[in-house]
Amino acid sequence: MVSISSSPLKRLVRTGGAVAFGAAATCVGRAAWGLPVALGATPAQLRAVAERSPQFVDGRFVNAERSPVITAMDAASIIRAWMSRDERGRPAGPVPLVSNESGPEAAADLAATWYGHASALVEVDGHRVLLDPVWGDRVSPSPTIGPRRMHPPPVPIEDLPAVDAVLISHDHYDHLDLPTVRSLLRTQTAPFVVPLGIGPHLRRWSVPEERIIELDWGQHADVGGLRLICTQARHFSGRLFTRDNTLWASWVIRGPSQRVYFGGDTGYTAGFADIAREHGPFSLTLLPIGAYGAQWPHIHMTPEEAVQAHLDLGGDVLLPIHWATFDLAFHAWAEPVQRLCVAAAEAGVALALPRPGERISNTEPPPVKDWWTALARTDDVPR
User: In DSSP terms, which residues pair with 226 in a beta bridge?
Assistant: First the structure.
């Protein structure tokens, strides 16, 4: 055993300990910087809005179908999987981006630009709607901890054209991003059209009341020449430890001649057929295909389920979202799109598979080009 009884050595240990403690405190401080604001509204503020909804039952929002999220056994397997995860959830090289497609000055009858993950800009009957915009570096309340994007935004948020509305599906960090909201307050004048409970978050972040439209399932808002309809999804919500205190939703974007469905983030649900009966068919569906896992089968769709959802909705073209940008599950990076291509071919479903930043339109639909296989790792075997 080494003695540290000498005075110089004691001072060195004390100094080293103080430096280590200071460094640790600095790291913790950086990780926690801004966290209270990023968390959004208080539980009391959220509950005051939530209690007016028939979807709010026994103190929480609920799905239309029983949808357990994670059991105690699942939690243990998730921890084991998370501790042993490798690089398979990341691309093998830089994701190709399209950064020079601003589109025409006037919005098209039907077009879409995918920016990565669930962020997209759709053009419907001459109007533009921005969907789940996330331009931040991390999808987390902390600037230093949490999933980091695997490719930069294809275009600066300041370069987006003026939009008529900003639609948000739910309050998870990969769909509702405080830095992006702050940027849009500077660069846009459009209202935020959101599910119940997200309004208090926006108010906490100084979004003016006149720019907040808060809806329950089945309600709608007319913005310009579009009707934006809040429809059900099968998911959950929460920005820290408390879950299901804000509503999650999908959206129907209905113009005089075109209809677009935005799934946001959802598990497969019988509600897709109901939405089709009431609001379909759809020229374009944007449906999530990634972040699925055996531990949470009810609240994230597999690629095969996304194809079935598209068929249920009576969709024409399917544009997959919720993949490629953030590593949020345990599947390989390219697996969602690989499985999607197989399932869509078998079902006869037309796909739009743009690179992040690439615009597609009904007048000039691009041929499907495989840009992802070159980035797949050798062990990316679809399952």
Answer: 223
**Beta-strand relationship, 127-131 and 56-57:** unpaired
The dihedral built from the CA positions of residue 125, 126, 127 and 132, taken in this order, carries a sign that is: positive
Alpha helices (runs of H) in the chain, residue ranges in sequence order: 7-32, 35-39, 43-50, 72-84, 178-187, 198-204, 271-279, 303-313, 335-347
pTM for this model (two decimals) = 0.89
Contacts of 255 (CB under 8 A, 6+ apart): 124, 125, 126, 127, 225, 226, 227
**AA letter at 105:** E
What is the distance between the alpha carbons of residues 102 and 104, in angstroms, rounded to a whole number?
7
- Kindly tell me if the per-residue pLDDT of 165 is higher than 90: yes
Take residue 373 and report the two structure tokens written for it. 């296989």
- What is the distance between the alpha carbons of residues 255 and 227, in angstroms, rounded to a whole number? 6
For the chain, domain boundaries: 7-32, 87-375
The answer to whether residues 379 and 88 touch, using CB atoms and an 8 Å cutoff, is yes
117 compared with 380, residue with greater pLDDT: 117
Relative to beta strand 282-288, strand 315-321 is parallel
Q: What is the secondary structure of 271-306 as a DSSP string?
A: HHHHHHHHH--EEEEEEE-SS--TTSTTTS--HHHH
Tell me the three state secondary structure of residue 316: strand
**Four-residue CA torsion sign, 194, 198, 203, 209:** positive
CA 185/CA 211 separation, integer angstroms: 9
Is-cis flag, bond preceding 365, omega within 30? Answer: no
Top-tier CATH class for 87-375: alpha beta
Residue 369 is given by DSSP the state -
d(CA 332, CA 34): 32
| pLDDT at position 19 | 37
